[in-house]
Amino acid sequence: xxxxxxxxxxxxxxxxxxxxxxxxxxxxxxxxxxxxxxxxxxxxxxxxxxxxxxxxxxxxxxxxxxxxxxxxxxxxxxxxxxxxxxxxxxxxxxxxxxxxxxxxxxxxxxxxxxxxxxxxxxxxxxxxxxxxxxxxxxxxxxxxxxxxxxxxxxxxxxxxxxxxxxxxxxxxxxxxxxxxxxxxxxxxxxxxxxxxxxxxxxxxxxxxxxxxxxxxxxxxxxxxxxxxxxxxxxxxxxxxxxxxxxxxxxxxxxxxxxxxxxxxxxxxxxxxxxxxxxxxxxxxxxxxxxxxxxxxxxxxxxxxxxxxxxxxxxxxxxxxxxxxxxxxxxxxxxxxxxxxxxxxxxxxxxxxxxxxxxxxxxxxxxxxxxxxxxxxxxxxxxxxxxxxxxxxxxxxxxxxxxxxxxxxxxxxxxxxxxxxxxxxxxxxxxxxxxxxxxxxxxxxxxx
Amino acid sequence: xxxxxxxxxxxxxxxxxxxxxxxxxxxxxxxxxxxxxxxxxxxxxxxxxxxxxxxxxxxxxxxxxxxxxxxxxxxxxxxxxxxxxxxxxxxxxxxxxxxxxxxxxxxxxxxxxxxxxxxxxxxxxxxxxxxxxxxxxxxxxxxxxxxxxxxxxxxxxxxxxxxxxxxxxxxxxxxxxxxxxxxxxxxxxxxxxxxxxxxxxxxxxxxxxxxxxxxxxxxxxxxxxxxxxxxxxxxxxxxxxxxxxxxxxxxxxxxxxxxxxxxxxxxxxxxxxxxxxxxxxxxxxxxxxxxxxxxxxxxxxxxxxxxxxxxxxxxxxxxxxxxxxxxxxxxxxxxxxxxxxxxxxxxxxxxxxxxxxxxxxxxxxxxxxxxxxxxxxxxxxxxxx
Lengths: 447, 385
What we know:
The complex is a heterodimer of chains A (about 450) and B (about 375).
Chain A: H1 2-6, H2 16-19, H3 21-34, E1 41-45, H4 52-57, E2 60-64, H5 65-74, H6 79-87, H7 96-110, E3 129-133, H8 140-149, E4 157-160, H9 177-199, H10 205-227, H11 238-244, H12 246-250, H13 255-274, E5 284-290, H14 299-306, E6 309-314, H15 323-326, H16 334-346, H17 350-355, H18 361-372, E7 377-383, H19 387-390, H20 393-403, E8 409-414, H21 424-444
Parallel strand pairs in A: 1-2, 1-3, 3-4, 5-6, 5-7, 7-8
Chain B: H1 8-17, H2 21-28, E1 33-36, H3 43-48, E2 52-55, H4 77-87, E3 96-100, H5 104-107, H6 110-117, E4 121-125, H7 133-154, H8 160-182, H9 193-203, H10 208-223, E5 235-239, H11 246-253, E6 258-263, H12 268-271, H13 281-292, H14 306-323, E7 328-334, H15 338-341, H16 344-352, E8 358-363, H17 370-384
Parallel strand pairs in B: 1-2, 1-3, 3-4, 5-6, 5-7, 7-8
């Protein structure tokens, strides 16, 4: 691959844990490829849909399109798949996670389901079912499955929902929680019925309960480990977190995920004890305020680090919160517990936002992290093909400055997969300018 | 009244070119005006609340000059354009807005709208994408929340009786519009696509009784026309979301083709499905907006057979093709639109399987690119001539 030849040297990783993440990703992809020969079933799935424990408890192998597309992007092997999708009229302005994977699926179908030659880390296996979601996370979660079915017409789809009340400063969302949770629970039960019907498997409810309990423990240890990054100098930054997010995002409900964060916790403790930081001379502490990264340009985190700028915390992929902070109602129903856990996670910053006029939950989360992690600035990334995580960033930045502080903010622009949107020289020039802004703000004393 | 029985088309033209002028008059007379976006706005509830519902539109001829300071350019160009008009003060008649959860471009910008417009009333209606039974129950719940916020805002109870009356009034409005559409079945049609879009835009900016009176008036006027002579021309159907400016219609009809039908979110998508009158009026409303409305943001795919799913999703398009004798389809999708964009290959192959050619265009909500669009349309029409 000519593009691959041009790929840069991978960025230096500060933690052993992050360096080991490739194994997780490769195993996840390989499992979907070998599942059929092992008598297992594969479900194309999408992150943060609340269906992880159901799949794990039923021994269903998830095929994560977002992960595969991210790998293609990081290895700069996405263009051929994007072009394949475009050849059948999928616009380049659509979600490139989806169009990359659709292009891959189209090629694999032309090969009668055989592996796509040269696909990054072996590609993904053909699914038996597709589990979409119509939740308030992104439209591709239900449009992507439909589009996939156009090429895999024998593969049934189930689309569930997991909504949460919208933020309205004049309305107490807690008054609506009950019917939101009931709806999410009903949808999760429908998901189980769909899988039982189409895959000929029965849910083991005791196993599901144990899996859900393991997920809670994983969320807790994940946050415990990440909160160690408050240390100065920080022992791990967002460049690593874009790797260490894999177990909690793609392997929730597995012992391996829990063990990974336990090891990460221990490693970070050790680093703190030894006074080892990400940057040799930590000058600026930054919050990754929102946005998925350009997977093909993770080296930009190194560029920040080389200038003494580190990211001890990020919003992106911090897909969990300590369960005790969510104040979850007790229930013996594991699916109801999943519903409560996700809904309380999405609405966790509502009360704070309601208390500060003109604020928003997303901004309150940013403020909380700025203070807890002693951040000097905020960096956002706006990916052109993804409206879900990237529309609203300007407003978050404006509100932050208005209600909190005139903290330096950088909004970078690019994409998650499509490298045609990226210009390294321009990006580095913007980072350089931002570093100067940070320096000026430091000299002035921001607060 | 806002129009006599004989000048419906002129009245429609007036409300089209002076969008919102009637809402401004009604506001001056003491009425409250609530704006909304998309086909998912449950107008029956707004009518029952005694407020004036106005479905908002942008201006394709006006560049976005203020909105981009607050809203990302990766958002749906239609949403951006309407927002730009709002922050420029073009909707000074609004007392509030309701944003239904149609897509990410609306959902993810809800805060952007509410914070920057700072209107007295604001509501985000959390319409689900899925259409199963729990989704119907959920939709009824969020409609109750919506009703509660409206009651608080207006200080007036919204009774089931009022909702039922509003349901009947809007059903009548839809029936009248379908009758007007029927006048385009002749060859050549009695009414142009350019005239039709003006009626559709005017209709969505008026209280339901005035809207119905306008449609009746237009229908009467058009029926009195003599069937135009002239050579038979291509009969085109236009598919898309909110295409609400006559520029595209003019581009199509300027080539000599006839735009005889649409499947637009301010057109047939809005008017072909009624609300069932049910003992609990919210049941019929929930079923109409979730299950009957054929828009890409409500997920349909329960059948194990893909072709059956396609029939459920797009079968109405084939029906229109037959009923309106369509021989060419233009699929016009806005850039950055995931819900419509991911359907393009499926819609295209579905319609082409019926032997009707499809031109797929992806473009902006702007006339700045119209020359390019015209060229593509002309080439397409030459091909099917």
